[in-house]
Amino acid sequence: MAERGVGRRLLGNWRVLLGGLLLLLLVLAALLAPDIAPFDPLDQDLGAQLAAPDWRFGADAHALGTDSLGRDVLSRLIWGSRVALTVALVAGVLTALLGTLLGLAAGFFGAATDAAISRAVDIWSAFPPVLLSIILVALLGTGLWSVVVAIVVIDWTRFCRVVRAETLKQRRMDYVAAAVVAGLRPAAILWREVVPNLLPLVLVLLTLEMGIAVVVEAILSFVGLSISSDTPSWGGMIAEGREVVHEAPWVLSGAMLVLLATVLGFNLLGDGLKAELDPVLR
Q: E strand or H helix at 81, and its extent?
């Protein structure tokens, strides 16, 4: 009954519904890209450079126009969703895993562990995130997995701080004292009692982190430090569109709109989940 109640609350929250719909469209675009993209995203047609959007839906019509090499903008947006979704899922999950584990250790296993991890968080947080990500990718070499590693290395502190604070709060709860009296080992108390109460919080942070990961990848693509320039990515399209914004604004605006919609979807979903799963807010 409780699970059905949570489900009804989530379905009744407009932010969860709208954010979920936007992200569902992203997932469908990424999964069905070979079937729904009207053109090969790498095919160049130098005779159709910077062609304006054509809504006639003919075999050769480019609904969102073409870029400076005559490549179909719509097809590149659709295929670019694969890069965005991959980075969001892989980087988001790995960041959440690393930050949560360190946050749990800092909040549960005593002052010495807490002090060591907290100092590491303070030092890491002193570096500007975007600058640090650019330096890391430059050192690791360009590529999608270098971007993922850079995001994980930078953003684990976000999870660690929040999870540590909440773990310290949970340690003072009566159910933890009861588990200690019952003779449970610290590790068992942590995984059986504390972690389940932190899962809603981690889920909310994860959705927000996925949106941040998409933005970071776009920034690195914009400066040429992500994947190959031939591979469709929204950041790369924004960089290219900036150079021809006066002649062909559709190249820039299309990539910016889908990037905005994706980040908005993650943020709306995260806000909606927080409103419905956080007992204090409810």
A: helix 73-108
**What secondary structure does DSSP assign to 14-78, as a single string?**
HHHHHHHHHHHHHHHHHHTHHHH-SS-TT---GGGTTPPP-TT--TT--TT-B-TTS-BHHHHHH
CB 229 within 8 A of CB 85: no
Segments making up each domain of the chain, as ranges = 2-37+65-277
Tell me the per-residue pLDDT of 214-262, one tens digit each, with 9 for 90 and over: 998 888 888 877 777 778 889 889 988 888 888 889 889 999 999 999 9
User: How many Cα atoms occupy the beta-carbon half-sphere of 187 within 13 Å?
Assistant: 0
Asked if 259 and 203 touch (Cβ cutoff 8 Å), the reply is no
Backbone angles phi, psi at 85, to 5 degrees: -70, -40
> 167: closest CA among 202, 134, 195, 125?
195
> How far is 214 from 38, CA to CA, in rounded Å?
24
CATH superfamily of 2-37+65-277: MetI-like (1.10.3720.10)
Residue 205 has, within 13 A of its CA and on its CB side, a CA count of: 23
pLDDT tens digit sequence for 30-43: 999 999 998 999 88
Cut 0.85: pTM above it? yes
Separation between Cα atoms, residue 50 and residue 246, nearest integer Å:
11
Pick the closest to residue 247 from 103, 122, 117, 68 (CA basis): 68
For 197, other C-beta atoms within 10 Å of its C-beta total: 16
Reported residue count of the chain is 282
Q: What is the DSSP letter of 279?
A: T
